[in-house]
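Batch job 17 of 40 flagged for manual review because the log was empty.
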Amino acid sequence: GVRHPLLGQVPTARVALERPEPLEDLTARLRAHCAARLAKFKWPMRYAIVESGALANARHKTTRRGAEEP
């Protein structure tokens, strides 16, 4: 998550795309996905589009450093 002046910290998500997609379609799809699976307070307030290699290191562990600023 990232710091938020009112809420303290809010959830964020880093997303790697398999193929290019219009931003409006992607946003709608991500919101629908989160709405179906998460409580509303857990929905990301920000999404960052990253390359697939940025999500995991060579040992397939999730990388979190630098993820604070999507």
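Reviewer: the log was empty due to a logging misconfiguration, but the result itself is present. The first strand starts at residue 2 and ends at 4. Unflagging and moving on to job 18.
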